[in-house]
Amino acid sequence: MAIALGVPLLILPSLGYLPMYVSAAAILVWGLSVLQGFLQNAAYAEMATTFPKASGLPGFAQLVFRSENYKGKYDKGKLIGGFTAWSYWFGWNPILAIFAILVGGYLHGLFPVLGETFSEYQLALIAGVVIFGGLFVVNWFGLKDGAMLGYILAAVSLIPLVILAVAPFATGHVEMANITGSWWPTDWAWDLHHILMLFGIFGIAQWSACAWETAAIYGPEYKNPGKDVPKALLACGLICLVLYVLLQTAVIGVLGVEGVQAEAVSPLIPVAQATFGEAGSIITIIMLVAAMILIIQTAYLGSSRAMHSMSAEGNLPKFIGKTNRQGTPFVAMLIIGAFNLVLISMGNAAAILAASAIGYTLANGISLFAYVKASKHPAFANLERPFKAPKGWKHVALTFGLFNVPLCVVGVVYLNSLEIGWTSTWVGFLVLALYLPIWLYSQHESRRAGSKAAVADVPDYRAADTEKVLDPTP
């Protein structure tokens, strides 16, 4: 639950992005997206406690869609589960690049002397190299993402967010006219163009607002899942709901929609400056940067462990799962670091997030369809469910599964084409499509290893017969 409480920090890349399209109605989008998280996470919590040994959303999909006594070379269920894992990994992995760009943007805005020497892109690249390199060295010695780090992340990230969400109201800097006077864009119309945009906005928003599924996925580890899971979901969901709505309200209330659009990358800097003055804003933003580094650490470890797990399950090549003496999956960490430095070259956190959101919505959609099948299929009917979602939840899951795939995926692609061009869409689909040849190679590698093991286990009867002939003793 503590790890899930670091999720509100994920609003930062979109605080200035959503108002570009829906003005102050971004506040409503955040509220509805967190409520969507409630509904989806209840389904995930039931699957987590029903399949306690499954590894999160991808594990659920692989178990539910597995092929019994499949014939041929490839297991369809394993492919679906592996692709869900890959999509989910691509949903979380670019956090490193996104927050490295944000760190560069906040430093650029906070310290003008840096802006005179480096561009925002250069600062983002430097931040990426320093942060990724530093975390690689630290994690090489076996620092694990334990509960204590989760508590630190929750505290460090929540404190500046709570301050920035509440203080502008307390100091009277929030002008409600900035919100009520710009609720929707003046040219908004409920036509196909704007409806597709809205689906895209919800797809982008859920990347942040629904990401506290860890509170549900760790359900089997709670002392009493039947009672503790709903408590964790309620606590995390309410904290996310309050913070997401208050933060967006504070930012628009202080700066106005046009002011937010002018500071789309780092809108909290002028909010902090207006609320606390120059000195206070520096302290607050430095705390925020520290929180960003901590969430990069969490994403770095989580992504590398995910790749290690996929390699161990035969869904990625074996060399990716290599670890050092301390158990750190260093090959996966190197690949992830290099991949995110390439992503930083896109130069736009919103573009990276948009590409990543395609993977995240696909993973959610497939996982919700898995819940629907697990609810209806006779093979899973008699399994114990320590936590059970309310009756008829399969209809809710199916609704949001279809909302994710295809509606939000199509919406994100459409939104990308309007704002960023087709680059982020092609990046997203290329990364996802790469999984098929990688997976096919992994299956070939696994079969070859299995064949060698089988040959090694066959007794050499010829050698035994030769020894019997040559042995003169009766």
From TrEMBL:
Membrane topology recorded in Swiss-Prot or TrEMBL: Multi-pass membrane protein
Subcellular compartments: Cell membrane
Keywords, sorted A to Z: Cell membrane, Membrane, Transmembrane, Transmembrane helix
GO CC aspect terms: plasma membrane
Pfam families, alphabetized: AA_permease_2
Keyword Membrane on entry: yes
Alphabetized GO MF terms: transmembrane transporter activity
Protein name: Putative amino acid transporter
Organism field: Arthrobacter globiformis (strain ATCC 8010 / DSM 20124 / JCM 1332 / NBRC 12137 / NCIMB 8907 / NRRL B-2979 / 168)
